[in-house]
Amino acid sequence: MATYPTKRLRRLRYNPTVRDLVRETVLTKNDLIYPLFAVTGQKIKNEIKSMPGVFQMSIDVLVEECKEVEKLGIPAVILFGIPDHKDEVGSGAYDPNGIIQQAVRAIKKATKKLLVITDVCLCEYTSHGHCGVLHGEKILNDETVDLLVRESISHAEAGADIIAPSDMMDGRIGAIRKALDEKGFTEIPVMSYAVKYASGYYGPFRDAAESTPAFGDRRSHQMDVANSNEALREAESDIEEGADIIMVKPAGAYLDIIWRVKEKFRMPTAAYQVSGEYAMIKAAGRNNWIDEERVMIESLTAIKRAGADMILTYFAKDVAKYLDKNR
Ligand code: PBG
Ligand code: ZN
To answer: Separation of 309 CA from ligand 2 center, angstroms?
Structure first.
């Protein structure tokens, strides 16, 4: 085995062309999933204060946005809905004429091949902002699963291409898969938020989705930040229950988890670069404390290098434009 001075690792770094030749991880448009927030009304485009460049959009605006996303070559969007009114049981989530159901129908009509993924949870739809139905201050697992099943079916009936449960209730993937199959939606994949941590990085999202819990937090269903082996158990049960794609969330602070999950299961693995990750990069970029574009690409390349096959990111459009510019 050669050692220095025969061995010189810098030989493969001397110029851009040789660096291009040996690069191991390359971000492409096909890696991207773009999150979008739908609200009721007309001509609405409200910027989220803590997420510059991210908007709540009424369906008319959202449809135009999706056309642009498709044109940019981004394969998929994931939709979050902010309903008109919220109640104890999150009825807006499984209303056949709910915000997401309407949005999906409109987007599918206006686009050709854009994949429309829908986030399935109750927290955007409940008056208390929790991810399930409550008994006192406790979230009831099985009762919540029944409602998540209804929500999933109504998304599929509206035309959703992929169903993405983000609630972290036990047993929901199996229940949703079974119901989808019984209703004839055997070809619709389930992308499970399988490994979702109780994270401080979701703060800005809760402004965007207006889903901050009225009391308490999400630690009774989302994972403890300190745990890693448990992530494998979460992923394993969702795979056993029929998940087609498993997700790790957040991404940047959990690269070790992405790596372990990918290594162990070799499943199509998604990672969610969440609102707080986006907000931090944006804020530092705007202050000229970091080079925003450079850190955007670096953060996403690192997530892919860790093992993610696809990345949900608020930077999706910026990345697509960057890739067009730097071809
Ligand atoms: C809903 C949901 C959340 C996110 C995605 N789906 C918020 C939460 O669990 O509070 C977070 C996404 C982000 O921060 O960008 N259950
Ligand atoms: Zn939730």
So the answer is: 24
How far apart (Å, rounded) are the C-alpha atoms in residues 309 and 130?
A: 30
| Ligand number nearest to the C-alpha of 82 | 1
Which run of H or of E encompasses 119? strand 115-120
- In whole angstroms, give the CA distance from residue 259 to residue 280: 23
- Helix (H) / strand (E) element for 81: namely strand 76-82
Nearest to 219 by CA among 200, 236, 191: 200
Going along the chain from its start, the domains and CATH numbers come out as: 25-325 (3.20.20.70)
State which residues have CB under 5 angstroms from ligand 2, the bound ion: 121, 123, 131
Catalytic residues: 196, 249
In the DSSP assignment, the letter for residue 222 is S
**Distance in Å, CA 221 to ligand 2 centroid:** 10
Does ligand 1 lie within 6 Å of residue 164's CB atom?
no
Map residue 225 onto helix, strand or coil.
coil
* 131 CB near ligand 1 (under 6 Å): yes
Which among 152, 166, 248 is the best mutation to test ligand 1's pocket, defined by most ligand atoms within 8 Å of the CB? 166
CB 101 within 8 A of CB 112: no
Ligand 1 binding pocket mutation candidate from 33, 56, 123 (most atoms within 8 A of CB) = 123
Query: pTM, whole model, 2 decimals?
Result: 0.98
Tens digit of each residue's pLDDT, the chain (327 residues)? 899 999 999 999 999 999 999 999 999 999 999 999 999 999 999 999 999 999 999 999 999 999 999 999 999 999 999 999 999 999 999 999 999 999 999 999 999 999 999 999 999 999 999 999 999 999 999 999 999 999 999 999 999 999 999 999 999 999 999 999 999 999 999 999 999 999 999 999 998 999 999 999 999 999 999 999 999 999 999 999 999 999 999 999 999 999 999 999 999 999 999 999 999 999 999 999 999 999 999 999 999 999 999 999 999 999 999 999 998
